[in-house]
Amino acid sequence: MSARSASSGTLAEPQVRAMFDRIAGVYDLLNTVMSAGLHHGWRRRAADLADAPVGGRVVDVATGTGDLAFELAGRVGPTGEVIGADFSEQMLQIARRKLPAGMPVRFEQANALALPYENGSFDVATVGFGIRNFSDLRGGLLEMARVVRPGGRVVILEMTTPQRPPLSWFFSLWFDHIVPVLGRFAGDPEAYTYLPSSVRRFPGPRELAATMSACGLGEIRYLVTAGGIIAMHVGTVVG
Q: How far is CA 62 from CA 17, 84, 91, 140, 238, in A?
């Protein structure tokens, strides 16, 4: 298998899984450092956009260590259910250790490109800071849409590259120089060199919205926040 996907330029799936298994222990700490602690607020806002019903079912794809799943659990309440799915078992182990007692969240190992769930079995599907790692963006979006009922939502929270200075200059300095240094301190420079490159090659907000539309989602809207660093997309599954 090629080290990179010919279609998207991303690392091959086994390499991405191995990378996230390696960095699982430092993932939460470095997220906090790299975002100055703002990532929790971004996840809260994405959970608001998901508008999951009380008592509803939600799947959080590429859930990582579970922070977005925890936010979503607060929306569905004790009668609802959130499934956090990820292909990295090491990340899931940390998510399970963080899981508060009684919270309606279950973590399962699953591939985002072949979700083991029935058609229309969820009210909402979300992905936070994970979709840029899909080796097949269209395939992943189709899977998320497939498992959501008609009228339900697909929500994407992802980093994007700011286009205007001075933030574009700071972004370049931070991601091209400082983040790889943080990776060396964390003991995995390859992973934190991959991070900025994965953001840069990912489609911009308008292009991602077009891809969502091409996958059959409707009522698509998006917002760009944090000075152009964060994009949130919402689409509705058409019946």
A: 11, 7, 10, 10, 23
